[in-house]
Amino acid sequence: MKLRFSAFLFFLAFAVNSFLAQAQDYTKLNQFLDSLEIHDKFMGTVLLASDGKPVFERALGYADRERKIKATVATHYRIGSISKMFTTVLVLKAEESGKLSLDQKLADFYPQIKNSDKITLSMLLQHRSGIHNFTNNPDYLSYHTKPVSEEALVKIISDGGSDFEPDSKADYSNSNFVLLTFILEKVYEKSFSEILDEQLVKPLKLESTAIFTASDPGKGESFSYTFKDKWILEAETDPSIPLGAGAISSDVKDLNTFINALFSGKLISEESLEKMKEINQGFGRGMFSFPYYERKGFGHTGGIDGFRSFLGYFPEEKLTVAVLSNGLNYNNNDILLALMDSYFGKDFEVPSFQPVVLSAVELEKYLGEYASDQIPLRLVFEQNGSKLIAKPSGQQATELEATAVHTFEFKPVNAVFVFNPEKGEVTLKQAGQTFLFKKQ
């Protein structure tokens, strides 16, 4: 699986919800989570907290399936890009102490980076630098499990060049936060791990938060898995690569403590927090905005190896929502919605996961190569026995789940494929968008 320290965005249409948090009943939420666990859809830990105090938390599955070590609410997970929130706080603390300025140019530290004389630290924080995202490179998976030096990593980023003129638009790039990590190390003359420990971990008494090392479930940590007919153990990224972009591990308790401290003014000033919350073309500085009906939350998502994560905070309600997963075979957005709906007393469905079984002969009508006039993507559909396999151009082959007549889904990314065999067409529905593909 290609590593990206970003993940799903959490979009909902706005509507009025009159239910209050006081009407909480988590019986149905437990049934929802039971169904996910029984059908191998989710392993991990979830938390809801009101004003910093947990009101619902539960762990599902295993931290180590091979040794049958069950996950607990204290299990540590690699949190991927949620790390960017920690890094942003450290950068803003450095600005408040006069060690850095968000208007400072990248050229002060790395003049070899293209356009570094135009790129500010603020642009790095808000993904407006144009610096190419090195984790998108085809060769990334050839080295991601091995230690990489600062010199080598900066060269990789520098060689990637620029994707657009600085500050002309926004596009997610892990390169931005890797460079910010090195900049913090330079101004403090300490390792990122030491800076994190001294400025956030110790003051907040975060017992499970650190730069990750090789996972050890015997010490409360978890391995990660992907599901391909069964759970498959994932390789582990070396922490020297993601750094402040995604190299932190934590648990739901620590994340709840961190985000409550952030929004209550215990870490940075109100002015600095507003800089984080300022959304420009979908990106804040180290965080996103997440709407839930008429409510608005802030936080970040994450993905690294087989881990997927979400941390959100709704300031008006003082509500924390955290989902840390080491095995996901379901749409994470639906898990978030179930948590939120349960908290606010809104109804939701418990999935049954009754399979639609198709024969190899029935699948033949869907096979072939499809192209779209709307996007530069080709889809090749093949079969493996009674399974339909999708091969999007430039991406890995993916096994689809039949969910209705002529309908298949890949639920981890909420992609739905609806075929019209008579016309030789397939419609892809994802993230509120629809794309028509025709058989070639």
Automatic annotation (TrEMBL):
The record's annotation in InterPro entries points to: AmpC-like, Beta-lactam-related, Beta-lactam/transpept-like
Tell me the compartments it is located in. Membrane
Give GO cellular component annotations, separated by semicolons: membrane
Q: Which residues form a coiled coil?
A: none
- Keyword Membrane attached: yes
Q: Where is the signal peptide?
A: 1-23
Q: Which intervals hold domain Beta-lactamase-related?
A: 46-332
Domain of life of the source: Bacteria
- Give the keywords, sorted: Membrane, Signal
Enumerate the PANTHER family for this protein: D-ALANYL-D-ALANINE-CARBOXYPEPTIDASE/ENDOPEPTIDASE AMPH (PTHR46825), PENICILLIN-BINDING PROTEIN 4 (PTHR46825:SF11)
Return the protein name. Answer: Beta-lactamase
